[in-house]
């Protein structure tokens, strides 16, 4: 691999030594806790995972020296990038080498496909040192190949046997860790001697539970987005003439949007889970936005910021029903596909939809309606992530304000700018919190491997305390599972964690959002991530985590 060209900050960060839980700095002993069960569907999950179900929780504590055997491991980066992935690998490498200098670490290239296609490199100290405390997944690359077939499992076992690999560490989100658990179970059943350990990664923040307090990368990504939102709010408060509609990553849950709201205090913030709970329509959402815009205009404030979660559309019940109907009606529909003009297609669709969905479809701006019918995946389904929700809301809000102005109920001026913040945060240089957390996760994964464990996810808890008080251990992946219908079939999956409307973070937001919307200035300007300075500036976790642990 070619030497990396480094910025002055990268050079400085290379010397940063991530903090570890105190127990991991010494000889450790494994302590088993209570035996576990899945969060739901106990018998179904147990039947699918007879060898890895019900295993105990694990914690590592300071103990006597243990002589560990040689254990070679491999690591896979799976799915979208998240800040800190390189430090998981660094922690894993250091943990393996500390326990036995003869241990080797391999990296499968391009994600799970590298395991199946036998594409790999040995990760040496020189390579790993080049990537410590950096963002990105470029050390070995990532991918979204799903390992689901027996042939794939056997291909993986074949290369592991050839290289003398005892364990595979899969760094990924809920789907990737579900697949890790399936792979672990298969390798136990086949008596391959290959262990599989997972690590919780996703900036979306929807892989968490009582044992996984947060997924890595969430802290850094939210701080990056919050800096950008703060910069926009400073500009809005200076120019005083634009409403900024800001869409943020997070299709399945609104954790990023909520955290960024807690950090920056925008005038309006939409939470998908609340919209769904209220059974709100798109018109209801627009009216809520318009109400704040009109109120601020009455006080001479024709500007503001609005945060919008990426997955909002799918949480509006009427829109969700429309999308489901479109997916059913248009998948592989030859008549529809043969039509030449957008208007032909529009009229055809209106005639097929139920009366309720037809009305929703008619009320949509033509550009969005076109996206719903034309931008489809290979299975014929609507590509919801491509829908520019912020532009949809801008158009509908502008139309509603024009109607109010015509009736003399709105005297303000409405000018808008739209933004989407997503890729800006996925590969940022990790915050001190994420650098420490991910290194600890990797080091813990090494201990789980050397302790002979499989089907576990690396777990580091007590994260609102200083790092030396963190608790390192492992949680059986089956503990997080339930059965869900995917593509018409019931499958075991790790349950996604949505924003809980009765949770402390949302309650805090709900109690303060009216103040943020009114004519007084409430903006917070978080500024860029700080790596050097007082701990209250540099090392704090997210507002979400702090509120959850109060």
Question: How would you state the average pLDDT, rounded?
Answer: 94
- Using only C-alpha atoms, the radius of gyration works out to 25 Å
Name of the level-1 CATH class of the largest domain = Alpha Beta
Shape: globular
Low-confidence spans: pLDDT under 50, at least 5 residues? none
CATH topology call of the largest domain = Rossmann fold
* Largest β-sheet summary: 10 strands, mixed
| Helical/strand content category | alpha/beta
Please give the number of β-strands: 16
* Percentage of residues in helical conformation: 40-55%
Strand content range = 15-25%
Task: Give your account of this protein's structure.
It is a single chain. It is built from 23 helices and 16 strands. By secondary structure, the protein is α/β, with parallel strands linked by helices. The chain folds into two domains: 255 residues, Rossmann fold (3-Layer(aba) Sandwich), CATH 3.40.50; 211 residues, Rossmann fold. The strands form three sheets. Strands 1, 2, 3, 4, 5, 6, 7, 8, 13 and 14 form a ten-stranded mixed beta sheet that branches. A four-stranded parallel beta sheet has the order 10-11-9-12, sandwiched between helices. The longest helix is centred in the middle third of the chain and has 22 residues. The two termini are 46 Å apart.
Provide key terms for this protein.
four-stranded parallel sheet, Rossmann fold, alpha/beta, 550 residues, ten-stranded mixed sheet
Compile the SSE list and pairings.
Layout: H1 8-14, E1 28-35, H2 42-48, E2 56-62, E3 72-78, H3 85-99, E4 105-108, H4 112-117, E5 120-122, H5 125-131, E6 142-143, H6 150-163, E7 165-172, H7 174-189, E8 195-200, H8 218-239, E9 243-248, H9 255-264, E10 268-269, H10 272-277, H11 282-298, E11 304-309, H12 312-315, H13 317-330, H14 334-338, H15 342-352, H16 355-363, H17 366-374, H18 389-406, E12 416-421, H19 423-426, H20 432-450, E13 456-461, E14 471-476, E15 481-486, E16 489-494, H21 504-517, H22 535-538, H23 543-548
Parallel strand pairs: 3-4, 3-6, 3-7, 7-8, 8-13, 9-11, 9-12, 10-11
Antiparallel strand pairs: 1-2, 2-14, 4-5, 13-14, 15-16
